[in-house]
Amino acid sequence: MSTEPPFHPVTSPGEFPTPPNRRTFIATTTALGGAAAFGGLGAGSSAAAEEVTAVEGAPPDSRVSLTINGVRRTVTVDNRTSLLDLLREHLDLTGSKKGCNAGACGACTVLVDGRRVNSCLTLAVRLEGAEVTTIEGLAKGDRLHPLQQAFIDQDAFQCGFCTSGQIVSGVGCIQEGHTGSTEEIREWMSGNLCRCGCYVKIERAVEQAAGRK
């Protein structure tokens, strides 16, 4: 067996290197890795920020033409704009109310091509060529729609916030032929909430306008 001492390479005369331990190895590799990544990360962050700024500066929009209460309208709107916001914020038709803004209360109900829809959940850009009827379009000049008159006759409102949606939904209910009984009216008007609890009088108003009273 050799008795010679183990050979250690030297880096300078009279100096022996200290073998790396686990702690120094981890610290060194972490520092080197972080330094290498910093340059790329900084450049990437700058590019990403510029891209986000560009996107935020130019929101996507579209041009849409539709007929609202018999009048042809052509507007350019953000693709995320709801029909309700188009009516209220762009066209100043504020009869349709923003209640829950989640399609649960019916205060925003309008007719699109004769069918009832929650305008807060309907994207305006999807209505190219559609015909929209709001509460403002039901009366003929000074002559009220039969259901509007029935609401007055039956005292079918209190605070009035839900009334426009209730009337438009009632018009749709009558046009769809769902007025055969009080129970049928209740079922097909169930998507419209009245926080004042005027449901019985609303039912009577729909029955009156439908010719059942």
Overview of this protein structure:
This protein is of the alpha+beta class and 213 residues long. It is 39% helix and 13% strand. It has six helices and five strands; from the N terminus they run αββαβββαααα. A hairpin with a 2-residue loop joins strand 1 (61-68) and strand 2 (71-78). Helix 3 packs across helix 6. The longest helix is centred in the N-terminal third of the chain and has 36 residues, at 22-57.
Which structural class matches the secondary elements?
alpha+beta
Helix/strand order: HEEHEEEHHHH
Low-pLDDT residue intervals, each spanning 5 or more residues: 7-13
What is the quaternary state of this protein? single chain
N-to-C CA distance: 120 Å
Number of helices: 6
Largest sheet: 5 strands, mixed
C-alpha Rg, in Å? 35 Å
| Total beta-strand segments | 5
Note the beta-strand portion: 5-15%
Helix content: 25-40%
Strand order of the largest sheet: 2-1-5-3-4
Mean pLDDT: 85
Q: Shape, please? A: extended
Per-chain topology:
Layout: H1 22-57, E1 61-68, E2 71-78, H2 83-90, E3 109-112, E4 115-118, E5 131-133, H3 146-153, H4 163-175, H5 182-188, H6 199-209
Parallel strand pairs: 1-5
Antiparallel strand pairs: 1-2, 3-4, 3-5
Quick tags:
alpha+beta; 5-stranded mixed beta sheet; 6 helices; single chain; 213 residues
Characterize this entry briefly:
The chain has 6 helices and 5 strands, in the order αββαβββαααα. The chain has 213 residues and is α+β, with helices and mostly antiparallel strands.
